[in-house]
Amino acid sequence: MQSAMKRGTGVLLTALMSMASVTAAAAADLLEQIKARGEIIVGTEARYPPFEYVENGQIVGYGVDLFEEVMKGLPGVKVTRLDLPFQGLLPGLQANKFDAIITSVTVNKQRYDTYRLSLPIADASFAFVKRKGDDSLNDPADLSGRVVGTQAGSAQLAGTEAFSKQLEEQGKEPIAGIQTYVDFNEAYADLAAGRTDAVVNSLPNLLYLQTQRGDVFEAVTTTFGAPTYFSWAFRKDEDSKALADFIDDQFRKLAEDGTMAELQQKWFGFTMDLPTDALPVPEQ
């Protein structure tokens, strides 16, 4: 009888310990969960040079190098990247398919209100690229009456649509047509083939494109719309707060010691003056 009671007590203690373990795991925030499993799973779009793109079978770019520096603050944690079309990243984050989006997410008000966005990783102000030698396009106002390409579901698309309305409000012809693409490489191909007149993207991407394919494309560096930034994205909940705060703190350290500027010089050929106190609230 006593033996049976001891066995029963042992089973009860084991069950209670198991329940305590499960409760503790559930209570741990996302950063602690990542440390415990020794892995962070991130979503990315490796078709957006020079931020993230595939070279010799490896994902490389400014964002990759920057995240590598950030992860020095979490030794022993490996990075697993899920390479997805941009259109699947934000829904995937909300569906808990990965821990964070570590790729260039252009900040706008809807995203700012829906997600926790990091401090800026780069300037994202909108500009456009044209075919080299096209002297009819020298300023954003020259997009009036033209066919323009950009990425589907992107902030660049929203910015292009807003600029078209602005042209119309000024008594000018709006943009004649806006073609959308899964990724910008498709848009650049149509521009090169003469199926569109220009492609709207963020200025750093266009300057990089010009360095790679200056025989075909020419960036028009006059930006339009409000100043815009690229950030990384997290779920806007208490579980994700510690992870987002950790990455912002790492950004501040990398800005202070000059590492971020060195990476910008490496990948863009110039440095950017980015806010480090807080992400500016976007107007639209």
From TrEMBL:
UniProt superkingdom: Bacteria
Cited PANTHER family: GLUTAMINE-BINDING PERIPLASMIC PROTEIN, MEMBRANE-BOUND LYTIC MUREIN TRANSGLYCOSYLASE F
Signal peptide location: 1-27
Positions of the Solute-binding protein family 3/N-terminal domain: 39-271
Listed name of the protein: Transporter substrate-binding domain-containing protein
Swiss-Prot/TrEMBL keywords: Signal
Pfam families with a match to the protein in the record: SBP_bac_3
